[in-house]
Amino acid sequence: MPFFRRKPPQPPRPPVPGPFAIEAIGHVRNQVREPRPHGWENVESDIVLLPHHEARLAGIEKYSHIIVVFVMDLAADAPGKPETITLDSGNTYGILATRSQLRPNHLGVSAVALAARDGATLRVRGLDAIDGTAVVDIKPYLSRYDAIRDARTP
User: Which of 16, 49, 37, 22 is nearest to 117 (CA)?
Assistant: First the structure.
């Protein structure tokens, strides 16, 4: 008769968290001054990290692409927080099923080409963030995790 070990009891999960604070690690510098829905693919931007984060970038230049998490702070002033939005295609989707900046928490996540690193500054192409946007995290793009073969899109 096989011996089965019982898993130790798991502690109860905490309640769903409420609001929390998050600190920027840097900001975006580019020539885009106002939000726009299209035309980001060739925009070159510098991500300027605070100096004490420079060592955290060690090795990032070995990657061709990175994932940037940023705060779309100007969207916070948009009137209302829509539940749905009608796209240029004429189709209506829930706001969380779009890439709209009118999200509940106004966070943006973009995979972008990494062109260069100079100390605590990264030069990227294709970041859909305007000049002065706060950056809260950067991760390397890993195709084995981030590229999904046969992904379905409408």
Answer: 49
The residue written with tokens 């299209």 in the block is 38
- The CA distances from residue 126 to 40, 41, 53, 64, in Å, are 5, 4, 23, 13
Provide CB contacts within 8 A for 82, sequence distance 6+.
95, 102
Tell me the three state secondary structure of residue 2: coil
Q: How far apart are CA 118 and CA 61, in angstroms?
A: 9
Per-residue pLDDT tens digits of the chain, which is 154 residues long: 556 677 777 888 888 888 888 999 999 999 999 888 788 999 999 999 999 999 999 999 999 999 999 998 886 666 677 899 898 889 999 999 988 888 888 899 999 999 999 999 999 999 999 999 999 999 999 999 998 888 888 8
